[in-house]
Design a protein that fits this description.
The protein is 32% helix and 22% strand. The protein has a 6-stranded mixed sheet. Helix 1 packs across helix 4 (121-141), helix 4 packs across helix 10 and helix 8 (341-354) packs across helix 10. The protein contains 10 helices and 16 strands.
Length: 435
């Protein structure tokens, strides 16, 4: 059965490439959330023809959701021959903006040098395509397996996943007894199993001032200068403190094994959407968005207190300094145990297909596993898929075709193991439906 499964996936190589190209050609850019419905329906229509029941679920009233840009998700489910566990493949359909520096059309799905190029090829339409091909090959050979298989295409992962997996998790779509095992085909390299991710705290710091005429700044109080003092303290105190913290989590790359803070944006003074000459005013507000990534050894309360204590010291020392802090997002670190069923199943597949032991890693950034663990309380979840992590979000993004084929074999083997409980697989059905 396993050899037959590998051969069936090899036979589907061109179908896998074509599927990846089709998904890339649907420009699901987030923000604002273009073409979500078109992409969801493409996936749904394909899987409906393979016997899946299809549901389209809109993340009503979530950030960015509107009639123009509906947060439409698709979940496809196929029941087996008898009751059993459920394996769910979850992939996000949104991609980041194109950016500059491309030498190929980012939405043409060009094939060259054994790679498929395009925005989202790596992150993560190649992974979605590999999961679909893996599942199709498996059900063609063994249509009567016990249990159920689900495939979802969800939205907004790049902006937090609130209209996608978070919304669905609150509706019970990522909890037992509906789902038992989840594989997210994020691009973490085909020989790696990603067990989880670091924690994240996004916050907005605002410094307050007093408006006055720009020719007489001494009559006002410049909020931007106050923010400059905050940045100076970050450089002198906070950044060195964070660099001194290290984790035992196998985070990749090596630099992410320390705590980090990124200044995501600063806004102060003249509105940024105005291209005329500025008016001469002392800015009375300056806002900075920070992106703090923290380790499993750190407490979220202490993470926040480090920033607040620094700001309080400034308030005590700097004349007229005042501030406010607003939480935007917080996610605790998560790490699935290495002996979890889904980890062992994928590890066995990697050893069989690639002939090597897997690397176990933690992602430097969070992804939708956070919602499955926190809201769905389902912890048998990992990220595994084709694609090179360092290629994601960059110009001329690509996915290697051989990597997609190999990952599809691993996914198919893992699904078979999870649905059969590791028992001997049923005989291949030579009359299985062709793609």
């Amino acid at each position: 059965m396993l050899d037959a499964l590998d051969r069936r996936i090899e036979d589907k190589r061109q179908d896998l490439v074509a599927l990846t190209q089709d998904l890339i050609r649907i420009p699901t850019i987030n923000p604002p959330g273009d073409a979500y419905v078109q992409c969801a329906e493409y996936i749904g229509n394909r899987l409906a023809r393979r016997g899946f029941e299809i549901a389209y679920i809109r993340g009503q009233d979530t950030p960015g959701d509107s009639d123009r840009y509906p947060r439409t998700n698709v979940i496809a489910r196929r029941e087996g021959g008898k009751p059993g566990s459920c394996v769910h493949f979850n992939g996000h359909i949104d991609v980041v903006e194109v950016g500059r520096g491309w030498t190929v059309d980012p939405f043409a799905g060009i094939v060259r040098d054994g790679k498929v190029f395009g925005r989202g090829a790596c992150d993560m339409k190649g992974g979605i395509a590999a999961a679909i091909i893996a599942v199709e090959a498996l059900i063609e050979l063994a249509p009567d397996l016990a249990g159920a298989i689900e495939i979802s295409g969800t939205v907004d992962e790049e902006s937090g996943g609130l209209g996608g997996v978070a919304y669905l998790a609150r509706q019970g779509y990522f909890s037992k007894p509906r789902v038992d095992h989840v594989i997210i085909p994020e691009p973490l390299n085909k020989e790696r199993i990603c067990l989880g991710h670091r924690g994240v705290w996004w916050a907005e710091i605002e410094t307050h001032g007093s408006i006055a005429h720009g020719s007489m700044p001494f009559l006002g109080d410049c909020a931007v200068r106050h923010m400059g003092a905050v940045i100076d303290r970050f450089e002198a105190e906070l950044f060195p403190l964070l660099a001194s913290k290290h984790t035992d989590m196998p985070v990749v790359p090596e630099g992410a094994r320390s705590s980090t803070l990124n200044i995501n944006s600063i806004h102060g003074g003249q509105p940024e959407d105005f291209d005329g000459l500025p008016s001469p005013c002392v800015p009375d507000s300056c806002r900075m968005v920070i992106d703090r990534r923290f380790l499993i050894e750190e407490d979220i309360g202490e993470v926040k207190d480090e920033v607040v204590r620094l700001l309080n010291r400034l308030a005590a020392e700097r004349p007229r300094f005042s501030y406010s802090v607003r939480d935007l997002l917080e996610v605790l670190p998560t790490m699935t145990e290495r002996d979890a069923p889904v980890v062992k199943a994928v590890a066995s597949g990697i050893e069989a297909v690639l002939g090597q032991r897997p690397d176990y890693v933690i992602s430097p950034g969070s992804y939708d596993q956070k919602h499955i663990a926190r809201i769905g309380h389902l912890h048998d979840c990992i990220a595994y898929g084709p694609g090179i992590l360092d290629i994601a979000h960059r110009p001329d993004e690509f996915v290697v075709i051989d990597d997609m084929v190999a990952s599809a074999k691993v996914m198919a083997r893992a699904t078979l193991a999870l649905l059969t409980g590791g028992k001997a697989a049923p005989e291949a059905n030579g009359k299985g439906r062709a793609s």
